[in-house]
Design a protein that fits this description.
The chain is mainly alpha-helical and about 260 residues long. It has helices spanning about 1-20, 30-50, 50-60, 80-115, 115-120, 125-140, 155-165, 170-180, 210-215, 230-235, 240-245, 250-260; strands spanning about 185-195, 200-205, 220-225. Strands 2-1-3 form a three-stranded antiparallel β-sheet. The model is unreliable at about 1-35 and about 35-55 (pLDDT under 50). Bound molecules: manganese (III) ion.
Length: about 260
């Protein structure tokens, strides 16, 4: 029985090994003996080596990383203080990355073991931590200093869409501010894009729920209204933070997200 399993594994790995390790030309002397020796070596390595597919899967899945930022922590002042941005990026986002990678490793292990219960048990940790990573990666790019275009909406397709659907940029901002301030507890305000109807949508998600996986909408602009995003500067007054943040919205990035969504 063990022999049969061994042979089965050998045969399933053989095509990979023959590609990597088969000599291009066999030595001209004692060809049959050498070929036999090569075959035995391949068999040994194929059986002893871990599954190549699994190694690649594990590495590919455990690869969340803090993204590079296009601004310095103090560049968004006075709208958001350097202290907030530094803590937010280095501590909060880092925690989502660290815990997301941990959850992904556990998932790979559970999948390898075929442990369905463990896979299901990891879903909340995956949504929260990997969602936090996705959301913040969008958020950082959504921000820019006014000196680098922050707060300025160009005259492209995004402006046309906003004016057609909401009347003006001011009206969109007013609607999105009200919706975002209204998030109960921690969460995000979003300007999303609905591919099916080719329309912009203002909405919110709770906690770290990522927009696209939970609603199907493509995220164009996210506003983080977790208290860690503003409390050190705005205390409990979330409406003031949301009102100010429009001065540092990187509309060029939002426009780019719309272009990529299509
Ligand atoms: Mn945050």
């Amino acid at each position: 029985m063990q022999y049969m399993q061994c042979m089965k594994r050998y045969l399933s790995n053989l095509h990979l090994f023959s590609f990597f390790s088969r000599p291009t030309t066999l030595p001209s002397f004692r060809p049959f003996v050498d070929y036999l020796f090569w075959t035995m070596q391949s068999f040994r390595r194929a059986v002893c080596a871990p599954s190549i597919t699994r190694v690649f899967q594990t590495r590919a899945m455990s690869s969340l990383k803090l993204p590079d930022l296009s601004w310095d922590f103090g560049e968004l002042e006075p709208v958001i203080s350097a202290e907030i941005m530094k803590l937010h990026y280095q501590k909060h986002h880092q925690a989502y990355v660290t815990n997301g990678n941990l959850a992904l490793e556990k998932l790979a292990d559970a999948q390898h073991k075929g442990d369905t219960a463990a896979i299901i048990g990891l879903q909340n940790a995956l949504k929260f931590n990997c969602g936090g990573h996705l959301n913040h990666s969008i958020f950082w790019k959504n921000l820019a200093s006014p000196k680098k275009g922050g707060g300025h909406l160009g005259s492209g397709e995004l402006r046309k869409k906003i004016e057609t659907q909401f009347g003006s940029l001011d009206k969109l901002q007013a609607q999105m501010s009200a919706t975002t301030v209204g998030v109960q507890g921690s969460g995000w305000g979003w300007l999303g894009y609905d591919k099916a109807s080719d329309r912009l949508v203002v909405t919110t998600t709770p906690n770290q729920d990522p927009l696209q996986p939970t609603t199907g909408l493509v995220p164009l602009l996210g506003i983080d209204v977790w208290e860690h995003a503003y409390y050190l500067q705005y205390k409990n007054v979330r409406p003031d933070y949301v009102k100010e943040i429009w001065k540092v919205i990187n509309w060029a990035d939002v426009e780019n997200n719309l272009k990529n969504a299509k």
